[in-house]
């Protein structure tokens, strides 16, 4: 069997698996990173979104062989050590999550968006996030949190605690 080298969150893993094994399986069951979630398994819900070379990818629908030699980032690698990614802080400030199941995928799609468009419009956000479904209906808070992370916080409320800040949309 072929050995596949995959860099995940800066660390190289040698995977002795079938090349068609979904990346999601390898992340969760072999590498032990269970932050990335299984939803539909057919590339339709976005729960399993990770970055491959900084692009958002549905990890349920891409095989290990297809990402060999490439750089994968999961939700566990989004923070910089103990420093939360701005989106993670904004998610807390805006209190986005309800059940939370979809949120790792939402955050990874949002992070890929901000990498490309640091100050996105509502239309940019809707286009980037339309493939990430949330059964709890947190879409408006997700949009607000992305704007918060991008710095679109009402300057008149700058002295208020983060959780009290309103977002200009
Ligand atoms: S589990 Fe991958 S897109 Fe739904
Ligand atoms: S927060 Fe429950 S599915 Fe999105």
Number of helices: 5
Strand content: 5-15%
CATH class of the largest domain: Alpha Beta
Major sheet strand order: 2-1-5-3-4
Domain count: 2
What brief labels describe this structure?
single chain, 169 residues, alpha+beta, Ubiquitin-like (UB roll), DNA polymerase, domain 1, five-stranded mixed beta sheet, 5 strands, 30% helix, 14% strand, globular, disordered C terminus, binds FE2/S2 (inorganic) cluster
Describe this structure in words.
- The protein is α+β, with helices and mostly antiparallel strands.
- It folds into two domains: 2-74, Ubiquitin-like (UB roll) (Roll); 86-157, DNA polymerase, domain 1 (Orthogonal Bundle).
- The protein is built from five helices and five strands; from the N terminus they run ββαβββαααα.
- It has helices at 23-31, 86-94, 103-116, 122-129, 139-149, and strands at 3-8, 11-16, 49-52, 55-58, 71-73.
- It has a five-stranded mixed sheet with strand order 2-1-5-3-4, sandwiched between helices.
- Helix 2 (86-94) packs across helix 5 and helix 3 (103-116) packs across helix 4.
- The protein is globular and about 45 Å long.
- The chain starts with a strand and ends in a 20-residue tail after the last helix.
- Residues 97-103, 134-136, 138 line the site of one FE2/S2 (inorganic) cluster.
- One FE2/S2 (inorganic) cluster is lined by residues 97-103, 134-136, 138.
């Amino acid at each position: 069997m072929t050995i596949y080298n995959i860099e995940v969150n800066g660390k190289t893993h040698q995977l002795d698996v079938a090349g068609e094994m979904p990346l999601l399986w390898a992340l969760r069951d072999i590498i032990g990173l269970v932050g990335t979630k299984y939803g539909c398994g057919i590339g339709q819900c976005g729960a399993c979104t990770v970055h491959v070379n900084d692009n958002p990818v549905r990890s349920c629908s891409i095989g290990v062989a297809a990402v060999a030699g490439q750089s994968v980032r999961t939700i566990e690698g989004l923070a910089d050590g103990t420093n939360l990614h701005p989106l993670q802080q904004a998610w807390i400030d805006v209190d986005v999550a309800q059940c939370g199941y979809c949120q790792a995928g939402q955050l990874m799609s949002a992070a890929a968006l901000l990498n490309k468009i640091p100050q996105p419009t509502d239309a940019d956000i809707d286009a980037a996030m339309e493939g990430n479904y949330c059964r709890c209906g947190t879409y408006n808070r997700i949009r607000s949190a992305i704007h918060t992370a991008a710095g679109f916080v009402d300057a008149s409320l700058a002295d208020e605690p983060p959780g009290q800040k309103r977002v200009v949309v």
